[in-house]
From TrEMBL:
Residues 1-18 form the signal peptide. It comes from Amblyomma americanum. Residues 26-83 form the BPTI/Kunitz inhibitor domain. GO terms for molecular function: serine-type endopeptidase inhibitor activity. InterPro entries: Kunitz_BPTI, Kunitz_BPTI_sf. It comes from the Eukaryota. Gene3D superfamilies: Pancreatic trypsin inhibitor Kunitz domain. The keyword Nucleotide-binding does not apply. This is Putative tick kunitz 1. The keyword Hydrolase does not apply. Keywords: Signal.
Amino acid sequence: MQLLTIFALLCLLGPTLSAHALKERCRKPVASATRTCPKGETHTLRFTYYPGTGKCGQYWHSGCYRGRNRNSFHNFTECMKECNPTSICLKTPTQHRGLIPRVTSFVFDINTLNCTEKKSFRTPDVGPQYNRFFQKDVCKNTCEPDLVEIIRSSG
């Protein structure tokens, strides 16, 4: 009887669970380039999806790697749309206008990949369906990608 109950629950919940299942492509680990290529191929900055954080980050893609890693994208937007299409980071922030902006909140700007401060006249809507946060740290941890920092020597 218990086995039949579990089977019935899985049949009912199956479509719901699979709708939120992460695509296989987005689960593949990537390896950053760690050395130069023997034939002079170049490395490029690309984005990969990290299932643990639910967002994409930058990495050095090796030009000499013969295999093709499918969890590799040209830009942040392409990566997020493929691997986390319901992310609030992809939503267009709502605009609140008023005479004297008093309430501070933060929104993720997909063009600059940064959380920016916004002022509004009334308390803005926040929550899982809005790209708006009351705390900058929450915005950054939720949306901002980890970017590769390029350090150049001056010598």
